[in-house]
Amino acid sequence: MTTPFEQMELISYSSEFQASLEEFLEIMYSYRGYKFEPTGLQSDIRNIENIYQIQGGNFWIMRKNAIVIGSIGLKILNKIDKIGEIKRYFVLPSYQGKGIGTLLMEHLLLNANKNELHILRLDLLQKSQMRGTNKLELGSINDLRTSKDPKA
Questions:
Q1: How many C-beta atoms lie closer than 10 Å to residue 99's C-beta?
Q2: Quick one: CA torsion of 18, 131, 7, 46, rounded to 10 degrees?
Q3: Which residues have C-beta within 8 Å of that of residue 149, sequence separation ≥ 6?
Q4: Residue 84, strand partner residues
Q5: What are phi and psi for residue 83, nearest 5 degrees?
Q6: How far apart are CA 63 and CA 139, in angstroms?
Q7: Residue 99 contacts residue 4 (beta carbons within 8 Å)
Q8: In the chain, helix, strand, coil percent, each to 5?
Q9: What is the pLDDT, as a whole number, of residue 125?
Q10: Any idea what DSSP says for residue 6?
Q11: What's the mean per-residue pLDDT of the chain?
């Protein structure tokens, strides 16, 4: 039986995927009308281990045939108050509407539950096509924040 997810793998970030992740994010930011700045506004992308993984969160990429087609990050903002943030949530336009974003989000939510997070913030770019829709679709998110600052 063939599924839409065959030949796809959801994996935790490691440095071996840095170049392909940056190529993917260049496409995604351009698609949304922004400039991807890995040494500026999006500098967290060059420090994923320290910003996401060592803090207790993680950063995942979805790959198909060794090409990054999706990403999502769980950043721990406050361990004491159990607050996390969903970051860099993207799916290539040609793969949107096929359940990949849902799969990424479900995986992140499972990890948020393992971290016993009580509040998740979804950071969306001002021009995001998803803006305003995720709060209804993702009942686990208690705080929806739209950022006017792409660095957020």
A1: 14
A2: 10
A3: none
A4: 76, 120
A5: -115, 130
A6: 27
A7: yes
A8: 30, 30, 40
A9: 60
A10: T
A11: 84
Residue 119 near residue 25 (C-beta atoms within 8 A) = no
Residues 85 and 9: their CA atoms lie apart, in Å, by 23
Q: In whole angstroms, give the CA distance from residue 91 to residue 2.
A: 21
Answer for the pair 103, 67: CB distance below 8 angstroms, yes or no. no
Taking the C-alpha atoms of residue 110 and residue 5, their distance in angstroms, rounded to an integer, is: 19
**In whole angstroms, what is the distance from residue 55 CA to residue 27 CA?**
28
Provide the CA 34 distance to its chain's centre, in angstroms. 17
Report the amino acid identity of residue 42.
Q
140, amino acid identity: S
In contact, 86 and 121? CB cutoff 8 Å: yes
**Token output for 33:** 């009308």
| pLDDT of 2 higher than 90 | no
**Which phi and psi (to 5°) does residue 122 adopt?**
-105, 110
- What global pTM score does this model have? 0.81
